Amino acid sequence: MSRILVIAEHSAGKLNPSTAKVVACARAIGGEIEVVVLAADGASVAAQCAALEGVTRVLQVDHPANEHPLAAVLAPQIAGLAEGVSHLLGPSTTFGRDLMPRVAALIGAPQLSEVMAVESPRRFRRPVYAGNAVVTVEVAEGRQVVCTVRTASFEAVGSAAAHAAVEQRSVEFSPPAHTRFVSVSAPASDRPDLQTAARVVSGGRALGSAEKFQLIYSLADKLGAAVGASRAAVDAGYAPNELQVGQTGKIISPALYVAVGISGAIQHVTGMKDSGVIVAINKDAEAPIFEIADYGLVGDLFSLLPEIENLLAG
Amino acid sequence: MQKIMVCIKRVIDYNVRVRVKPDGTGVVTEGVKMSINPFDEIALEEALRLREQGAAAEVIAVSLGPDDTQQQLRTALAMGADRAILVRHDAPADPATAAAAFMALVRKEGAELVLLGKQAIDDDACQTGQRLAALWDRPQASAASRVEVVGESLRVTREVDAGLEVNEIDLPGVVTVDLRLNEPRYVKLPDIMKAKKKPLDVTDLAALGVALDEPVTVLKWDPPPQRTKGIMVKDAAELVSALKQKGLV
Ligand SMILES: Cc1cc2nc3c(=O)[nH]c(=O)nc-3n(C[C@H](O)[C@H](O)[C@H](O)COP(=O)(O)OP(=O)(O)OC[C@H]3O[C@@H](n4cnc5c(N)ncnc54)[C@H](O)[C@@H]3O)c2cc1C
Q1: Smallest Cβ distance to B164: which of A127, A137, A185?
Q2: I need a surface site. Which of A253, A303, B44, B242 has the fewest CB within 10 A?
Q3: For residue range A250-272, what is the model confidence (pLDDT) as tens digits?
Q4: pTM, full prediction
Q5: How many domains does chain B have?
Q6: Are B129 and B156 in contact (CB under 8 A)?
């Protein structure tokens, strides 16, 4: 039977929603599911993990060095817990992408990145070439495997009727001094989070300036939506990097995705094509974004967005 | 620093619309333009700038790939790398194999900094740099959008989901780079001529003492699930009423 170790992502005492999706992937594999919380003081995060449906046990590893999620600090501790474990799972967020390959190398295991479907405990599907192809891969019998889980492909598990037990674990390790955390930018707004929002409004190069990008924020606020951006909009400085959607940004699947002044390059599309309903607003009727849009509207965004806002108010 | 090693990968050019072969055995590569993985090109540009600032003496471009990868290494030399090493390997390599090969080269060359892309745009694995750092037991800073040399350390700004994170790492170490770190220079014709005379050594995994261990088999390739094209609405009012009807707004 599989024994699966899920690495919890958290910050400031709060469990990141990606973890409930990784647990969903673990349930699709089937077997015992342990969630490990590495923190300076992980009590509250461990309790949140224990409440997730399908979790067998939570391992709480407290260490002052775990204050910030540095891969060089966390990976040896995870490797120390890996004995007898068949699968090690983390989210395919920047946290998991940074950490899991380091774990995989330490335990000599292969890693499958961006797992989007589980066909059996050994057989998985994952996208390659910016989502232009999907490969079905198989891991040899008897080998441990590390996965980063494409969170947009899994529905978060609900809460458990009875909470799982939390066990304190201590790991023998001397934290490396060669890597130091300096700072992280504070969350910029109290708007819905791009990775979990049910609705997202994204703006592209067409917005033309950071000032005009406010049109996107304004519509998003009307809809209670999170704000996203194309790489071109981020590169041009209209929007901060954490809003980028796509192959090299965030991969999301909201119920509603509104793409405004975005052409629909494959690198962008791969980050949002699993959305429930896609709306595209573009002045070019030939823009590739219309190929995947459920509702397409050809026209000038600068006149259409205010009009849409008015209609929403009415 | 004396030596910076930059790992580059030969991939299908990012402008090519990649298609899965009808028999499901891979993607179409015949007659398709091949290039340096765009992230690795940015890594190389950063290495060249560090050398130009006097922070490093030599930039070595290395790759694991088929013989044709010499073309991309020549491009790297034309951009300004001092020399190049190809680890010849015909099959598509697992990131674990790539990391092991680069580890052997780091030992052989005594590189103090390894720069490479945060991911390759073919397998989108995002693994090689972190794996290399683990094998080396040295620090890693992934997805860098800014790199500053501070004595024997680097101060690296990383693109993370929350925004920007700053880490300090002691050298030697590994930095994987993101797209906003810099804009790579264009190669000029005289540089292409000069690059022909620069050293490009060819070795292989056996010569480096790297054993192949690839426990993952690709069973099949499929095109991605297609979304069906929806409808075009004529104006904002029709759009809003459609969304209202679906309960989306
Ligand atoms: C390795 C690599 C990784 C990448 N990763 C990503 C990624 O993660 N995310 C990402 O988004 N991109 C990524 N890109 C970039 C991608 O290829 C495109 O360049 C980018 O998505 C284009 O952004 P855009 O659609 O905003 O701009 P453009 O392609 O310039 O499109 C602008 C659109 O706006 C329309 N328009 C202009 N004016 C108006 C108006 N007044 N009203 C309405 N419509 C208007 C135009 O018709 C056009 O379709 C990556 C590229 C590479 C090489």
Answers
A1: A185
A2: A303
A3: 999 999 999 999 999 999 999 99
A4: 0.96
A5: 1
A6: no
